[in-house]
Amino acid sequence: MNAPHVAAAFPQQTRSFMPRPVTPESGLMKLSVPNFPTLYRELHAPDLSLIVTGPSQLEPWRLLMRSLFDRRAWMGHPRIGPALAPHLLRLPTAAPIAVIDTEDFPYINRADLFLLSRCKYYFKRELPPDRWRLFTKTAHRALPTRRFRRQSPLRHFIDKIRPISLGLPPVSMHMPTTELDKTADIFVSTGVGDTSTVRQAGMSEIVALRERGYRIDIAEGPLSPQDFYRRCAQAWMVWSPEGLGWDCFRHYEALGCGSVPVINQPTIERHRPLIGGVHALFYDPEPGCLSGVIEAALADKDHLRTIARAGKAHVLEHHTLEALGRYVVETTLGAQP
Q1: Per-residue b/e over 43-52, b at no fewer than 16 CB within 10 Å?
Q2: So what's the pLDDT on residue 5?
Q3: pTM here?
């Protein structure tokens, strides 16, 4: 049960469950029967105020079957522990439960519907504006119908769902602390192959802009955090199209570096959203819209500088790990008597 958001906001009050080691000196962890009584006692500790977990994604029997046929599990490297631990929350607990689901997909797995019923709040990153779509092909065989929405017991749990952002990653400590000189109009550091068609369509416009003389800095391969953040800071804008999910670390990292993210229009309900023209620039998916937004923005660099500064302040206030941890705790415990 790991909650980095909450641990960042409340380091002294947070306890994370870790499996017991094979031997103290080995550093290898194992999933064994003695681990679960320990976790069960933690979940019923009298001083426990809140339980925070992520989703499991698979039913317990599927997890166990995977473990039996995974030799890494027998060598002390199980991948089953973090996924199996949330299933202990099927049992009574001493404190309310909050779920933080930052996965790429815009639905809740069937294996995690019990968490939705047990939790006080379910924080979902890729949250469709129509929340019933979270149950498409999980609780319902297709898109939830009117009859399903009217009769399903899940209707009692819709109001538990809240949006949450990815926010800044832990490596954001490497971001520049001062504004750097702008040496590029737009920085591009995103994979195109085997990913979102939004990226594939946008890259052709980015290349066309470069051929017309715009200063386009395109990363040709993986970058260290320091190099990535430096090149973000040296560009007026950072192209940040959606990948497997719409929300992306890059949205917030660009602003943290003093650049303006250029993002395709939001497709999800967002927590403390970036506002177009205030904290970020958004473009429609139709051909020509991306290049049009970039060209118009570069014509008024004072406005770009204003957006970057306002966006950075917004991100540092609402989208750090600490800020997101406070949001989860205050939202959940604030609803308690």
Answers
A1: beeeeeebbb
A2: 85
A3: 0.89
